[in-house]
């Protein structure tokens, strides 16, 4: 032992290592901890470096204090395994990660160690780092939630792991699938991710129902390119149903096996029609039919072979039942939807005679791109069969979890009375409607966590408009000055002016005229120059008001609150801009943790500025926190659709961004900064007005020194505007 | 594609280059030929409306050939001034010389003048055609101090694509109301197949596949694409395919890449193309 260690630790380090061992054993963490270190650290020294192996003792001791002896005893072994996986360069980062977890989630370290080798292989060191950070942050300080996450009991833990490992999931494919479906079939039903609380079988397959297409979060077991193809095939298949399945089949008195078979024949029928129109779909569908003839005569195996036999003309199967089905299928005209029912019933009866058992509980449609067929069936009224049928179709009621459309476009669908499998849309209430998820930038890892923040839109409360009108009228003088300032602002594309007495280029037409005039003896006009100039305003503005709790504070030298000043400024600006016909919108935001960033539209671009808007301004109340980045992203997405030469997001805030689930003060600042940079890439200028704040340094960091401006009273608005237009004029 | 424009000119014919000698291929979809002939008979100005690449320009070529008139085409752009249309004085060694613009040339010598994409031109430019498009049929050349009476055969045709930039740019009401309009759109599948097969010189099954691909892209109009794939694009893809380029690659080059810059949209279109083949 001594000799071995002497090899591993040359020179002075050997003494250091012995001292480290003594310290560990003297600290009383128990034999297990010391033994593990003494036994394994020489190997780590060889794999990584002797110094690191000596330093490891400090980490072990720290872990023993915070996370307990069990975790500390595991550490040397884990360190050795990690050193083998991540190599010499990655090892210090791995150690930092362990320290981070033992500081922030000590109870979970031992559990994390249990999965560590496998996780490292799956997602790599970097992926593991961001995944643990997400877990710790998501738990929001709740021990139990952290434990669930690291035990992988929490479904979101698995989802984030998928993301970290780069597995293709719905979120990656959504933007591609939507136009693909539209291109193929000409209609564009909304696509939704199957909620994670849905039934296991529902989560494994795609599905559709009337207006909504539902897709699994991921198809486990399929890697990148295959998963992409699988999603495309699923969407193309559902598109074929939407086109060719004219009416739902009544469940009636059908047995589960018959339901499954009718669905299977119907799948084959619509695919056949689809492939007639779009022959390339065969290349998409057929590779997923991988089943081969075998002697097994279980229902799932036979069904999969039948599916293949009906889809793939080159497939040969000796089974007489399948041959019969194929023959019957090919004899009929595929445009007749009832053929599925006829053949399905027949085959179901045969299956009964062949004494083949069908277990609806464990049946999953094959191949994986096909949907769960829930959308094919009409369950009628509370039929006792419905329950059985539901089982076959592995249905779980799906609650509409989110709606990507804007709230004003939510379809108020009539609520189907207890029909199985219908998507139920909860009636609108004063609850917010989830409209978008945005990523958030983590400056520590330097990466963006996708879909981290949920923005919900809340309807605006209205109060008495007169209150705001009074605020506005009180400063009528100011209103005129603001209007005059905006009117004189020139923010547009440069135009070419001809026949100027001075300018930057010669106006050739004018020059020729001048020469002609001289030749025929007239006095030539001296206006022979041309120049470029901005002459009009072509600018859309979105005013984003911070209505967090702190806006209820009074301003330093006055009786009014920050929110009052925001209201007044919004009213003045709106009045001026609507008088000049400039597109102008107002929205307000606050946040209650990352799951609930509240966004309220007060005035849309197309809406006139009227008493309703003033009533909504009056109804604003300050509450919750300031998650600036998400609000900026959401407002920016709105603004980016405006078709004007310049687009300006004007943020009015009273302080630094904050939220109760974030402790690191710098985190939200850096995220907001990233959001602003993102908008400038979209061609949206962002400008911030800090009200009565000494947070100017933060604002400067977020928006850039030239784009942040702090004012204490409303009078300064007139100083602000020229500065703003000057910034835009560039 | 032989556009049939050549100089089989009669000696001394100033418009020789503008005559169309051989028949440009055109497959009528409705009765647009009869409509145009009727409008031409009373020299009524004609407006051709329709999405890009659906055959407006080809139709004018064809009609000019059919009516035996020279055709002067002007592609309008946003910097075009009235003198680009009417003409201007130029300098030469001896002094200034007047040069007729394309519109003046057509008015003087009795050609069909085709102003392509007229909305692109600035509004103050388009008003010069006003006096030509009512019963006056004159073109005042104020710089030259001349009022030009239109040749009896002069005929004005404009094209106008209402789809794009419609909000920012539109014709003045007073301009619009001077024209009769013939609407064009992409022909139905069978006809379009015939056109693609003929123009690209490919066989019918390939042409049909191309037309189906075109329909996929047109499905996306308004769902991420400003315009669907035009017949012209399909013909281009067909021409590439005839030269031995594999059809999926031909479609990518002629159709997918030009039509969108959005990577997701491209991906979706590419998958849709491969679903058609």
**Average pLDDT level of chain A:** 80
* Structural classification of chain A: alpha/beta
Q: What Rg of chain B is obtained from the alpha carbons, in whole angstroms?
A: 21 Å
**Strand order, biggest sheet of chain A?**
6-7-13-12-11-14-15-16
Overall average pLDDT of chain B: 86
Radius of gyration of chain A, CA atoms, in whole angstroms: 34 Å
The share of residues in extended strands of chain A comes to 5-15%
Biggest sheet of chain B, strands in spatial order? 2-5-8-1-9
State the distance separating the first and last CA atoms of chain B. Answer: 26 Å
Helical content of chain A, roughly?
40-55%
Structural class of chain B: alpha/beta
Secondary-structure element string of chain B: HEHEHEEHEHEEEHEHHHHH
Strand content of chain B: 15-25%
Write down the domain tally of chain A.
4
Biggest sheet architecture of chain A: 8 strands, mixed
Cα separation of the termini of chain A: 73 Å
Based on CA inertia axes, which overall geometry of chain A fits? globular
DSSP E strands of chain A, number: 16
Family (chain B): Belongs to the CbbQ/NirQ/NorQ/GpvN family.
Protein name (chain B): Protein CbbQ
Keywords (chain B): ATP-binding, Nucleotide-binding
GO molecular function (chain B): ATP binding; ATP hydrolysis activity
């Amino acid at each position: 032992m001594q000799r071995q260690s002497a090899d591993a630790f040359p020179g002075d380090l050997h003494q250091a290592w012995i001292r480290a061992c003594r310290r560990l054993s003297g600290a009383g963490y128990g034999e297990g901890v010391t033994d593990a270190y003494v036994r394994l650290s020489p190997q780590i020294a060889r794999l990584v470096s002797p110094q690191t192996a000596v330093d490891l003792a400090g980490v072990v001791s720290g872990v023993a204090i915070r996370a307990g002896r069990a975790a500390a005893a595991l550490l040397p072994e884990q360190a050795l395994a990690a050193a083998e996986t991540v190599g010499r360069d990655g090892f210090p980062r791995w150690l930092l990660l362990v320290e981070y977890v033992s500081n922030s989630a000590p109870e979970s370290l031992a559990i994390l160690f249990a999965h560590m080798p496998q996780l490292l292989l799956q997602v790599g060191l970097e992926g593991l780092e961001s995944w643990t950070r997400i877990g710790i942050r998501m738990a929001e300080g709740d021990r139990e939630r952290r434990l669930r996450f690291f035990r992988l009991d929490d479904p979101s833990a698995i989802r984030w792991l998928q993301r970290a490992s780069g597995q293709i999931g719905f979120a990656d494919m959504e933007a591609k699938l939507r136009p693909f479906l539209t291109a193929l079939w000409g209609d564009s039903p909304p696509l939704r991710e199957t909620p994670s609380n849905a039934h296991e079988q529902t989560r494994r397959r795609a599905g559709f129902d009337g207006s909504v297409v539902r897709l699994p979060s991921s198809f486990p077991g399929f890697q990148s390119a295959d998963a992409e193809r699988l999603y495309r095939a699923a969407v193309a298949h559902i598109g074929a149903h939407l086109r060719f399945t004219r009416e739902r089949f009544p469940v009636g008195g059908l047995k589960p096996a018959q339901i499954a078979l009718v669905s299977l024949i119907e799948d084959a029928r619509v695919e056949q029609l689809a492939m007639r129109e779009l022959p390339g779909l065969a290349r998409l569908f057929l590779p997923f039919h991988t089943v081969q003839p075998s002697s097994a005569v279980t229902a799932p195996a036979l069904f999969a072979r039948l599916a293949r036999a009906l889809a793939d003309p080159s497939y040969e199967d000796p089974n007489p039942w399948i041959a019969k089905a194929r023959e019957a299928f090919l004899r009929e005209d595929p445009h007749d939807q009832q053929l599925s029912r006829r053949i399905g019933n027949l085959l179901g009866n045969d299956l009964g005679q062949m004494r083949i058992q069908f277990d609806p509980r464990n049946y999953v449609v094959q191949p994986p791109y096909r949907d769960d067929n829930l959308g094919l069936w009409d369950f009628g009224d509370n039929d006792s069969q419905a329950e059985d049928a539901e089982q076959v179709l592995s249905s779980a009621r799906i609650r509409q979890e989110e709606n990507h459309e804007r709230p004003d476009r939510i379809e108020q669908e009539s609520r189907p009375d207890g029909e199985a499998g219908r998507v139920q849309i909860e009636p609108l209430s004063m609850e917010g409607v989830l409209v978008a998820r945005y990523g958030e930038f983590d400056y520590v890892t330097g990466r963006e966590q996708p879909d981290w923040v949920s923005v919900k839109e809340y309807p605006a409360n209205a109060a008495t408009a007169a209150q705001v009108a009074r605020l506005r009228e009180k400063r009528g003088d100011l209103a005129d000055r603001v209007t005059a300032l905006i009117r004189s602002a020139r923010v547009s594309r440069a135009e070419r002016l001809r026949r100027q007495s001075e300018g930057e280029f010669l106006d050739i037409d004018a020059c020729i005229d001048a020469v002609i005039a001289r030749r025929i003896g007239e006095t030539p006009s001296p206006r022979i120059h041309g120049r470029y100039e901005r002459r009009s305003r072509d600018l859309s503005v979105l005013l984003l008001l911070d209505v967090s709790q702190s806006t209820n504070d009074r301003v330093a030298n006055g009786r009014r609150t920050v929110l009052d000043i925001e209201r007044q400024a919004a009213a003045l600006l709106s009045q001026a801009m609507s008088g000049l016909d400039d597109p102008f919108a107002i929205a307000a935001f606050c946040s209650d943790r990352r799951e609930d960033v509240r966004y309220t539209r007060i005035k849309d671009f197309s809406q006139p500025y009227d008493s309703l808007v003033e009533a909504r301004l009056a109804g604003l109340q300050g509450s919750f926190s300031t998650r600036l980045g998400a609000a900026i992203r959401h407002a920016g997405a709105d603004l980016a659709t405006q078709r004007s030469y310049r687009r300006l997001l004007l943020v009015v805030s009273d302080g630094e961004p904050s939220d109760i689930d974030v402790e690191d003060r710098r985190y939200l600042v850096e995220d907001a900064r990233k959001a602003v940079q993102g908008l400038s890439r979209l061609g949206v200028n962002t400008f911030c007005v800090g009200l009565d704040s000494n947070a100017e340094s933060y604002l400067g960091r977020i928006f850039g020194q030239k784009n942040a401006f702090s004012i204490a009273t409303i009078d300064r608005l007139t100083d602000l505007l020229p500065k703003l237009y000057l910034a835009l004029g560039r | 594609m032989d556009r049939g424009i050549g100089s089989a000119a009669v000696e001394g014919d100033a418009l020789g280059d503008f005559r169309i000698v051989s028949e440009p291929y055109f497959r009528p979809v409705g009765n647009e030929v009869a409509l145009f002939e009727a409008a031409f008979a009373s020299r009524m100005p004609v407006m051709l409306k329709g999405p890009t690449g659906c055959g407006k320009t080809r139709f004018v070529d064809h009609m000019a050939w059919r009516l035996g008139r020279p055709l002067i085409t002007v592609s309008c752009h946003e910097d075009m001034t009235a003198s680009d249309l009417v003409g201007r004085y130029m300098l030469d060694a001896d002094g200034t010389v007047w040069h007729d613009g394309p519109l003046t040339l057509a008015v003087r010598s009795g050609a069909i003048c085709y102003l392509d994409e007229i909305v692109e031109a600035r509004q103050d430019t388009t008003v010069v055609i006003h006096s030509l498009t009512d019963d006056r049929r004159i073109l005042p050349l104020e710089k030259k101090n001349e009022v030009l009476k239109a040749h009896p055969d002069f005929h004005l045709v404009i094209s106008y694509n209402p789809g794009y930039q419609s909000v920012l740019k539109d014709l003045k009401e007073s301009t619009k109301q001077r024209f009769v309009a013939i609407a064009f759109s992409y022909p139905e599948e069978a006809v379009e197949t015939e056109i693609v097969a003929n123009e690209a010189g490919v066989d019918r099954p390939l042409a049909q596949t191309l037309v189906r691909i075109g329909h996929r892209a047109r499905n996306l109009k308004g769902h991420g694409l400003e315009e669907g794939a035009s017949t012209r694009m399909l013909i281009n893809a067909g021409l590439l395919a005839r030269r031995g380029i594999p059809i999926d690659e031909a479609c990518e080059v002629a159709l997918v890449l030009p039509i969108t810059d959005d990577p997701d949209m491209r991906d979706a279109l590419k998958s849709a193309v491969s679903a058609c083949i």
